[in-house]
């Protein structure tokens, strides 16, 4: 029967047209065969073997057909077997479908039966809950009393007993919740508040750890033990863990910060140094207390000393930031804070003390002051100090100015030199501020050094302006000073004292030119004082030189004697000026006298009428030069600094007998005094009174065409400081005295 089924399911071979692939394969085979045959039978002698080839090909064809039939038969048998298996699988699927349909009907009938049993199931659950509740009822009735007792234990700070009681209540709540299928009973409503009350009691104890470690360490230990036990408890699923350990640590930090860094403990303006001094004592003592008393009460992993050190550091840092964000600090407070934060805090006096262990190291934490804080404090300090320094320097200058109108001469030192404490006060003010800032930082010292140089420059300008006002008021008669010149000479000594000591303001390692502006200001001040002294000398000498030159001057030395006497009286106090300023002052005084002499000589007030007067004038110049030389040698001026030899050069110009040789004499004068001009030479030739126009022109041409003066000679300005007189028209007209030489008498 099985064989018959197989026979029924055998597939029929296709009867239609051949497959295209088969047709194409036959064409290829025929072509290959023709190609092979044409190659084999190409030559006639190979036709004799045609029968052999035919029989061989017939055998091969038969073999191929047999193999093909075998393969096709095997393929057909495989297909037949596969079709049979598919039919068997179809029968099995149909049987399974019928079984599933029967099972689905059974399930529907069971669901209807289960729905009818649902009320019974609910009754069973209620029965179990009532049974569990009846068993727990005695314990549940005791819950309110237990909660009240727990609260009493918390209030009396019996924290361990309170925690045990709380845990019993919580375990009862968990057991009841599990037994009642998640049903919450009203009797446990206050349990969360009770746990929070215990947590707050633990935090309060932790905040008072410093005090409890001394007075009641058992309470502190109990609070920390409760926090640790709670941290090690496994929290049931669905409940939020109570992180009492972290709350306890935060409470330890909060209590410590409130003691030292609460807003009420921030210092008032001006009291910062005292506050920092108190912290300098309190913080190391606090760390020592933590190590000796608090640490033994805490678990080792709390690292109490490190916690204390970091808490104190961060609290101090926040307090300083809050302090800097408030009103601007004064100079003393800014300096105290910079020095304390940069040097004292991490030094051996405080956090770097050898008595503190490595746990107290805060050097790796954020610094107390940021770079912006340091910049702000340094700028504040420099601004405040600059204002104070300006006031102090102004007070010193005002005190000095007040002395100028006294009836007494300036004070002198034991050596007899004019002396005033003002230069020492000025330098002390500046150097002390620079020295103090070296205790803080190099940057602050550089800032203050720049400020000191700036204020010194301002002071020197104010000093110079005050001297100008003093001189102007005196010379105008608005405020006559009894000792005008002595106080100018005293100012010379002030300038010398400042100039000799200003080098102490140059910091170590600074560039050599950093004091150049101050040195230039001091030099300018010296020139200003010297100019004021010389102006006073000119005022006294000007009336005496109004008669020079004159006929009286030619015949008598009385006029120059008066000049020398007046100059000697004016310079009698020069010895009270310290060297080298005194040499400069004497040299300028001598040059001032000579300039007055030259100015008078070229004023055109005298024209020699004959050779005798020219000889007298030449002799007078020689005598006056010797007299001036003797005067200033007696005053202490070295001969090399004298300007009076110019009178001897003019003497040669006047004493020349032959006017045609004036060109040589004028060229020699230019060699000695390069600043002599044509107008000066013309004025001197007018003084001779015997020079014709041609001779004058020749002399002036020789002045222009003569060899230039040697640059190696040190020439002091003389003629350039004498205003050249405008030549009179008569000296250039044919009818004038220079139109023809005056015959020698």
Task: Describe what this molecule looks like in 3D.
This protein is an all-alpha fold and 745 residues long. It is built from 25 helices and no strands. Helix 6 crosses helix 8. The radius of gyration is 62 Å and the shape is elongated. The termini are far apart. The relative contact order is 0.03. The N terminus and C terminus are likely disordered. Belongs to the SEC6 family. One of its GO terms (molecular function) is SNARE binding. As part of the exocyst, may play a role in regulated exocytosis of insulin granules. Keywords: Cytoplasmic vesicle, Exocytosis.
Q: How many E strands?
A: 0
Q: Number of helical segments?
A: 25
Shape: elongated
SSE class: mainly alpha
Using only C-alpha atoms, the radius of gyration works out to 62 Å
- N-C termini distance: 189 Å
Strand content range? under 5%
Q: What do the pLDDT scores average to? A: 84
Helix and strand succession? HHHHHHHHHHHHHHHHHHHHHHHHH
Question: What about the largest sheet?
Answer: none
Percentage of residues in helical conformation: 55-70%
Residue runs with pLDDT of under 50 for 5 or more positions: 1-17, 729-745
Features:
745 residues; 25 helices; 69% helix; elongated; disordered N terminus; cytoplasmic vesicle; EXOC3/Sec6; exocytosis
